[in-house]
Amino acid sequence: xxxxxxxxxxxxxHSKSPLIHGYWLEQLGIAGDYQALDVAPADxxxxxxxxRRGEYLGGNVTLPHKEAVIKMCDIVAPExxxxxxxxxxxxxxxxxxxxNTDLYGFLSNLDQQAPNWDRESETAIVLGAGGAARAILxxxxxxxxxxxxxxxxxxxRAQSLANELKGPFQAHRFEAFADLAPSASFLVNTTSIxxxxxxxxxxxxxxxxxxxxxxxxxxxxxxxxxxxxxxxxGLKTVDGLGMLLxxxxxxxxxxYGKRPEVTLKLRQLIETAMxxx
Length: 277
Ligand code: ATR
Fold this sequence. Notes:
Number of helices: 11
Mean pLDDT: 96
Bound molecules: 2'-monophosphoadenosine-5'-diphosphate
Largest sheet: 6 strands, mixed
Shape: globular
Number of strands: 13
Strand content: 15-25%
Strand order of the largest sheet: 2-1-3-5-6-4
């Protein structure tokens, strides 16, 4: 039987997944082989044939394939259908199962880094309405937040997301932040703002509840301007690297039959690899 698994993308050179899974294989003493494969869109059908023939246990899917592979899977988990993207494939008896572990990764990271972050489960603010926002919105809804505000530069995009996903979602422009913040106990950034030194203009974190938790799914840099400002104001912050680590857990367990742990040592390994870039 095969011991091979993969991450597919195009390009794939910057993926941290081989380091994460390689670390777990070594730690757990499993003779597995996790490879980064550069697969062009036209070559996806061949990869799926290989999966069905048992050449791989499964693998991760990254850009630009996360949406395209949904249609190629034999069975798609409900959360992946709702998110509209598959990031994990598992081959079972000739069939390819697709799922999305971002929802799990997002929640597990917060549970580990900020226990009780969801204790109030009332009002959450989500910045951004792009592809990355979908998993976060569904995760917050599933955790029982009773009001989830989607703030986006383009209001129409936030509105269409709020209409499409079933839940307590309301769409706004960023300018609404000042009015909404005093009742919010949770804030997450899902936009690319924070990368390359960019920052928000209309987001005054001092208006949030004093016990609010602030997180960012951007992890380059690890401490985004949003997180730095939140920390300076005494708010609890959680960086986005943990989501990357936690979302890898369910795939590894499905392929290799052992549940790996997200430890400080693993985090340090990935942080060091990012510094070397
Ligand atoms: P992803 O799939 O990574 O979420 P995306 O679908 O392109 O990427 O979405 C990017 C998000 O970041 C969107 O919410 C986008 O806002 P718009 O819908 O108005 O485009 C937001 N975003 C990106 N750059 C931005 C900027 N400079 N200012 C404000 N919002 C920005």
